[in-house]
Amino acid sequence: MKNKILEELKANNGQAVSGEDISRRLGISRTAVWKHIKRLRDEGYSIESQTNSGYRLVGSPDVLSFSELEPFLHTKCIGRNIIYLDNVTSTNTYAKKAAEKPFQEGTVVIAEEQTGGKGRLGRHWVSPRGKGIWMSIMLKPDILPNDAPKLTIAAALAVVKALWSCCRLEARIKWPNDITAGGKKLCGILTEMSAEADEIKHVIIGIGINANLELEDFGPEVSSIATSVKLESGNTVLRKDLAASVLYEFEEIYKVFVRDGSIKFFLNEYKDKSAVLGKEIRVISKKEEITGLAVDISEDGHLVVKLADGSLREIMSGEVSVRSLCGYI
Length: 329
Known about the structure:
- This protein has about 325 residues and is α+β, with helices and mostly antiparallel strands.
- It folds into three domains: about 1-60, Winged helix-like DNA-binding domain superfamily/Winged helix DNA-binding domain (Arc Repressor Mutant, subunit A), CATH 1.10.10; about 65-270, BirA Bifunctional Protein, domain 2 (2-Layer Sandwich); about 280-325, SH3 type barrels.
- The chain is built from nine helices and 14 strands.
- Helix 2 crosses helix 3 (about 30-40) and helix 6 runs antiparallel to helix 8 (about 240-260).
- The longest helix has 22 residues, at about 240-260.
């Protein structure tokens, strides 16, 4: 009912609407209207109330609910169903549980805060309230399970394109799943899949973007390697605009990828945005650590590294970390 009252206020385009009119159209008491108006104010909506004229919406908070995202969305599928949470342990964990039941393709779980956000290899992800974009996209693509990791590449390119179109921020992709700016980590992507034999049950793509975090929001263990859109651009980003841009860019790539079953059509663009190609790197896995020159990204999404003896090694994303010989990247 609260959301219906918000829709009534928005539909009046800044003009006042009386509590009596709202109560009559929605079939609730004027006291109930007042209580929901109070809740909306508590959530950050600026609502004026005037005797004999009613309520007028004069400002909306930068929250990531569907009612706030919808005016910015230009997608047909991705994000058309939003599960909006005030706080959650992890959007990926929530999405995986939700995906155990039938779900609408492109459903997005998005939260204002994660209390146990996670990245690849089980690393903790700092996710403070109202300062980032913490979301997971729920998919059931008609592709082979072996091709699912390529969705990380698609998501990474989508984020970089959105950061430029929305924020005019030049970002780079640190294969396989990090987005960097100014040589520091700005965004992380975590793709998780459930499959049986050759059939995918679901794929969850978690995207965490440091939008408006300040330096003090990062703990001492990551402050030297992490950054945010605000820190890099000097401007506060409208989170709902950026989130909607990411979903749009992802949908544009995803629909062609699923149709063709290949990353060929965007691979060169991905390479152009790479933060690792042409650099001497270390590749760290549980079994070994190798150094070499990052020379290519294959059509399978593998990183191609030229070793000291001149041989080429294809690295799958899996359980590996990539580092520059001089630091994070």
